């Protein structure tokens, strides 16, 4: 106080005690200090009252009394072993030692030094000792100086402990980069470990060099590069340790071998040219001398071995290389290491190879020399050669070869060296080779060839004359016929000889044992036909109508045809009129285009008149002359011409067909006519489909081809069937993945149209058979759909397939139509197309008209029904709302919808400026739930009605 007099002071300590005293006069400003000892902790409300006759002061104060923080101890186990890829829970024990009252309302703040700080209450209740256990997971190796601060309002104690956390060393491996080392070479000593952190690796190279200490762990490979300068066997090791353990290991591959390499040697043949055999040597034996020299400026290799290959097939066993040389300074700086001799029994160009090796090197030292020998017993073997494979010749003497492949001529002789070969192939060509005893030659023409080989060397020469036969193979043969035709009529089968095989035999199997004159027909080279064992019995029975034709005759006909002059001029027009009797009265005009091709043609429909490959005029075929269906291996060739046909019917039942053919003005090859074909005739007696088979054989090859021959009761042709062009896609029902493919909604009636033309006088009844296959795009297969819900898929009236809505599931389908002629075996054709069934758009409609009104504050809810008239057309029951989600949007009429939504109808782009009269930018939409300048998105209701 600064001034006061005659005042009484009363202090209430709030613990049941008080202090009162009187002060007469303050002589100067002073502090009045009194002391009071509280005996128990707590919060006390102290009050002090000072008064005298003229003044009064009263003050209230909160006094916090606590027991201090004392007698604490922190312990932890260190080091801690950290599991690989996991964590280690570490226990920290804070011990209250007791003997004093525990600290009042104390807290424990622990910093684990890994970025984690926690605060826990100090919960000791009396003076009894107690341990507070705190667990903490460490996930990384390290040294952690953990600190703990235990404090209350009156005191604090700071404790700390150091914790080492490491992975235990496991699977420590020392691997030298080299097992066998050349002297003065650096070797990397690599240390890896499956587990272990913050380790140190002490390297011992094993050769007495100083140790090297580097850090190591499982994270990276530890490496020390050491140079071994002295020959020897060394055992490197490493001592690895960290805070939780240590490991001592030796090299995982065993000791390191350090050796001098193989260098500085030279092999010398003392004789470079020699002759063997009479008159040079009495026998075919010749002994030569060789030397192995060593450059004495190098170091001899350590523990080396050697072997000698004398070049004639003889190789010595493995021997130890002498540790010292035989003669020093034998030839200048070279010492003599070895002297060798060897006896040769034939001539040749030889190389003596001395291979020397030890653990660190392997070197071959060579020298060449020549031993000349006269040629004796020269001969030639011949082989066919196709796609890298040698094949033995064919025929009676194994000397027939295919003209399409080269012939391999292989020379051989019992004696002779350094031979040059001169080949005369008897086709105006020849070839020379040195030391190469074979040659490949392609003959351009078939025939018999007397080949000449002249072999020569320094001593002399020899000549042989092998004879071979070269034949052109059976290849690209074809058989065809203007079918189908009526039974008991003549069938012409033009046989295209293709490659025109040399001296070939052809057999046709008509597959009808009642065919006339026989089921089998042979033609070609009769001599060869008689050599085919499996055909001999059939040939004897049909020899009476054998057709003899030689390959030479076919070659001549083809040559004359392909080399005759062609005409170039103005277009010409030819007109052909044919009169036939029919039962109906029709008029029809068609245009047909035939294109020249040498590849497999597409199937193009010809409706009225065509000119076939052999120049024959055919009426109302209905089957393309270039169809790929009726034959197995046939290449059509036709002139590019346009034929226009007009059919006119008269009342008396006579029809006149007039055709006009426009021949192009350009010069065209005449090969389309194939006048070198052989035409074979037969008569089929039983209707049906026959797989007519043509086979061709000669000494070097065989081939076959086929033709589907249709035999009918009367005249009949294959029906023309096309569904792909009849079902074009029209926008927007074109498939996204295949723009030319049609797609259809599942809920709508599906009609697959067809374009079918029947051309058969034997019967007018055709059956239409539709099949539907669902495509499995992942498995790349298809499954037939058998339940078409009552659709007419097989009948004489099913030209179009009509499926009711929701018949097919979503997916890609193939629709196939097969049209077959009634009572006519095998007369059918088919076509197919792909179509995708896709989801029908949902129908969304709100019931109750366009406007609903309610007074403000009306208790009748505003019910909006979106489910009654909304439905999925692809569900068979319109009332089935399975899987449908209703998302309601709301705006005021003065607002516009947002310009863009996300997939779940959240606003992506805000709405444009509105025409509303208010200006509050947060007052938008109907619900005010999004707080966004947009028409409000309402709650997403699964239900179809909102209130």
UniProtKB/TrEMBL annotation:
Protein name: PKD domain-containing protein
Compartment list: Membrane
Annotated InterPro entries: Ig-like_fold (IPR013783), PKD/Chitinase_dom (IPR022409), PKD/REJ-like (IPR002859), PKD_dom (IPR000601), PKD_dom_sf (IPR035986)
Keyword tags: Membrane, Repeat, Transmembrane, Transmembrane helix
Protein's membrane topology: Multi-pass membrane protein
SMART domains, A to Z: PKD
CDD domains attached to this UniProt entry: PKD
GO biological processes: calcium ion transport
Species this protein is from: Dreissena polymorpha (Zebra mussel)
First-listed, main subcellular location of the protein, grouped into a coarse class: membrane
Lineage of producing organism: Eukaryota, Metazoa, Spiralia, Lophotrochozoa, Mollusca
Record's GO cellular component terms: plasma membrane
Domain PKD, first and last residues per copy: 416-471
GO molecular function, one term: monoatomic cation channel activity
């Amino acid at each position: 106080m600064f001034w006061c007099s005659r005042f009484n002071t009363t202090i209430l300590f709030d613990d049941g005690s008080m202090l009162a005293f009187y002060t007469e006069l303050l002589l100067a400003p002073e502090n009045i200090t009194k002391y009071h000892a509280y005996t128990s902790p707590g919060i006390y409300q102290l009050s002090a009252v000072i008064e005298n006759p003229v003044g009064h002061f009263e003050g209230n104060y909160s006094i916090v009394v606590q027991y201090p923080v004392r007698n604490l101890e922190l312990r932890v186990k260190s080091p801690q072993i950290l599991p690989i890829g996991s964590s280690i829970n570490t226990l920290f024990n804070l011990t209250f030692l007791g003997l004093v009252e525990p600290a009042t309302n104390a807290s424990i703040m622990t910093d684990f030094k890994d970025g984690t700080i926690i605060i826990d209450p100090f919960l000791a209740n009396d003076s009894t000792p107690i341990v507070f256990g705190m667990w903490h997971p460490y996930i990384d190796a390290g040294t952690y100086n953990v600190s703990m601060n235990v404090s209350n309002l009156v005191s604090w104690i700071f404790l700390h402990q150091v914790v080492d956390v490491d992975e235990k060393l496991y699977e420590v491996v020392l691997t030298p980069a080299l097992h066998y080392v050349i002297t003065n070479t650096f070797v990397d000593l690599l240390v890896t470990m499956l587990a272990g952190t913050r380790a140190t690796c002490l390297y011992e190279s094993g050769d007495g060099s100083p140790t090297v200490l580097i850090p190591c762990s499982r994270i990276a490979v530890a490496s020390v590069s050491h140079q071994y300068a002295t020959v020897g066997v060394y055992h490197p090791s490493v001592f690895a340790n960290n805070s939780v353990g240590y490991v001592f290991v030796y090299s995982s591959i065993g000791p390191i071998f350090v050796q001098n390499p193989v260098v500085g040697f030279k092999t010398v043949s003392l004789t470079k040219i020699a002759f063997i055999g009479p008159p040079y040597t009495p026998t075919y034996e010749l002994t030569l001398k060789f030397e192995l020299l060593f450059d004495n400026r190098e170091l001899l290799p350590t523990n080396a071995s050697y072997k000698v290959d004398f070049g004639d097939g003889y190789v010595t066993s493995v021997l130890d290389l002498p540790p010292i040389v035989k003669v020093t300074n034998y030839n200048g700086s070279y010492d003599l290491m070895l002297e060798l001799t060897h006896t040769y029994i034939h001539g040749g160009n030889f190389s003596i190879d001395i291979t020397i090796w030890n653990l660190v090197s392997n070197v071959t030292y060579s020298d060449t020399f020549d031993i000349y020998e006269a040629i004796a017993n020269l001969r030639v073997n011949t082989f066919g050669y196709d796609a890298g494979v040698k094949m033995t010749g064919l025929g009676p003497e194994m000397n027939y070869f295919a003209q399409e492949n080269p012939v391999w001529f292989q020379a051989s002789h019992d004696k002779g060296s350094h031979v040059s070969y001169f080949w005369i192939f008897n086709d105006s060509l020849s070839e020379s080779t040195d030391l190469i005893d074979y040659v490949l030659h392609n003959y351009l023409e078939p025939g018999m060839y007397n080949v000449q080989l002249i072999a020569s060397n320094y001593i002399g020469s020899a000549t042989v004359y092998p004879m071979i036969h070269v034949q052109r193979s059976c290849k690209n043969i074809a058989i065809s016929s203007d079918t189908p035709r009526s039974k008991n009529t003549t069938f012409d089968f033009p046989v295209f000889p293709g490659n025109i095989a040399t001296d070939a035999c052809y057999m046709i199997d008509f597959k009808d044992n009642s065919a006339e004159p026989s089921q089998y027909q042979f033609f070609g080279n009769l001599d060869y036909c008689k050599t085919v064992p499996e055909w001999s019995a059939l040939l004897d029975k049909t020899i009476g109508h054998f057709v003899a034709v030689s390959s030479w005759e076919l070659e001549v006909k083809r040559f004359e045809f392909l080399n005759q002059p062609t005409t170039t001029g103005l277009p010409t027009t030819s007109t052909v009129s044919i009169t036939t009797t029919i039962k109906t009265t029709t008029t029809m005009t068609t245009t047909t285009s035939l294109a020249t091709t040498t590849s497999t043609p597409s199937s193009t429909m010809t409706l009225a008149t065509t000119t076939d490959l052999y120049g024959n005029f055919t009426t109302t075929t209905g089957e393309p002359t270039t169809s790929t269906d009726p034959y197995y291996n046939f290449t059509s060739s036709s002139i590019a011409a346009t034929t226009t046909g007009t059919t006119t019917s008269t009342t008396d039942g006579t029809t006149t067909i007039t055709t006009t053919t426009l021949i192009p003005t350009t010069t065209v090859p005449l090969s389309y006519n194939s006048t070198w074909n052989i035409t074979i005739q037969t008569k089929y007696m039983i209707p049906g489909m026959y797989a007519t088979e043509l086979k061709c054989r000669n000494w070097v090859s065989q081939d076959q081809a086929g033709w589907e021959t249709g035999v009918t009761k009367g005249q009949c042709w294959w029906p023309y069937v096309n569904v792909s062009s009849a079902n074009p896609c029209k926008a927007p029902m074109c498939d996204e993945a295949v723009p030319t493919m049609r797609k259809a909604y599942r809920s709508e009636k599906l009609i697959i149209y067809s374009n079918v033309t029947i051309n058969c006088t034997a019967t007018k009844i055709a059956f239409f058979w539709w099949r539907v296959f669902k495509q499995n795009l992942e498995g790349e297969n298809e499954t037939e759909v058998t339940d078409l819900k009552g659709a007419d898929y097989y009948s004489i009236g099913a030209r179009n397939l009509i499926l009711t809505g929701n018949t097919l599931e979503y997916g890609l389908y193939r629709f196939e139509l097969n049209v077959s002629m009634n009572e006519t075996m095998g007369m059918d054709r088919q076509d197919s197309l792909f179509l995708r069934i896709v989801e029908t758009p949902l129908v969304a409609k709100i019931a109750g008209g366009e406007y609903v009104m309610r007074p403000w504050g009306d208790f009748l809810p505003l019910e909006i029904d979106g489910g009654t008239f909304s439905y999925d057309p692809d569900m068979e029951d319109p009332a089935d709302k399975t899987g449908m989600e209703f998302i309601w949007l709301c705006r005021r009429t003065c607002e516009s919808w947002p310009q863009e939504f996300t997939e779940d109808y959240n606003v992506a782009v805000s709405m444009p400026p509105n025409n509303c009269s208010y200006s509050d930018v947060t007052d938008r939409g109907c619900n005010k739930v999004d707080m966004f300048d947009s028409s409000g998105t309402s709650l997403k209701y699964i239900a179809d009605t909102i209130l």
